[in-house]
Design goal:
This protein is of the alpha+beta class and 178 residues long. The protein has two domains: 38 residues; 112 residues, Flavocytochrome B2, Chain A, domain 1 (Roll), CATH 3.10.120. The chain has a four-stranded mixed β-sheet with strand order 1-4-3-2. A hairpin with a 2-residue loop joins strand 2 and strand 3. Bound molecules: protoporphyrin IX containing FE. InterPro entries: Cyt_B5-like_heme/steroid-bd, Cyt_B5-like_heme/steroid_sf, MAPR/NEUFC/NENF-like. This is Cytochrome b5 heme-binding domain-containing protein. It holds the Pfam family Cyt-b5. Belongs to the cytochrome b5 family. MAPR subfamily. One of its GO terms (molecular function) is steroid binding.
């Protein structure tokens, strides 16, 4: 055994009194143990973000739902949770709900964050996470998909305050002009 490899093996044996195999196993076990122990403690940064989340949740609870009336799809996007001071909104079948209470689901990093600030009608009917289904388009939905959608709508009506309705940009403009 020569070269660098031989030197390493020799050094391991000289300094640790262990065979290279035992040394590698010992190192591996140490790393695994270290990783496991790390997961048992909340890192300071994580703790800080938990505190931050608590503050945001408390703000959500204090804020009265603001009635927005008619909102365009473009305006709805502003309520996707990227600004923690704004409520989280989501639309189903053209009705806009304040889902701030469900920030854990719809806030940044939440499992359903992609629905925030969007009309999720088609996605919910199809139980789909495809961004293309983030639309109010109900064309071609089957009877059972419409049933699924109905269930979601009832859940939202029961759980979240309705704060507005979605309108097309041109409808909003024409109404303003009158
Ligand atoms: C592997 C499949 C899935 C599992 C295990 C799962 C699990 C869950 C659980 C445990 C909740 C929390 C329920 C509660 O505490 O009220 C939830 C909520 C929710 N799920 Fe799923 N889910 C799945 C797939 C989906 C899909 C495909 C969609 C739609 C595309 C969806 C949409 C939702 C929504 C919108 C909520 C929040 C409802 C609310 O605001 O209260 N889920 N899900």
């Amino acid at each position: 055994m020569g070269g660098i490899y031989g030197t390493i093996v020799e050094s391991i044996e000289n300094y640790t009194g262990l065979s290279p195999t035992s040394f590698i196993i010992l190192m591996a076990v140490s790393i695994i143990t270290y990783k496991i122990v790390c997961t048992m403690f909340v890192a300071v940064d994580d703790y800080k973000s938990v505190e931050k989340m608590k503050e945001i949740f408390e703000e959500d609870m204090k804020r009265e739902p603001v009635q927005l009336g008619e909102v365009t799809e473009e305006q709805l996007k502003e309520y996707d949770g990227s600004d923690p001071k704004k409520p989280l909104l989501m639309a189903i079948k053209g009705n806009i709900y304040d889902v701030s209470k469900g920030r854990i689901f719809y806030g940044p990093g939440g499992s359903y964050a992609m629905f925030a600030g969007r009309d999720a009608t088609r996605a919910l009917a199809l139980m789909s996470f495809d961004p293309q289904d983030l639309t109010g388009n109900m064309d071609g939905l089957s009877e059972s998909e419409l049933d699924v959608l109905q269930d979601w709508e009832l859940k939202f009506i029961e759980k979240y305050p309705k704060v507005g309705v979605l309108v097309k940009e041109e409808d909003l403009d024409s109404k303003k002009a009158v």
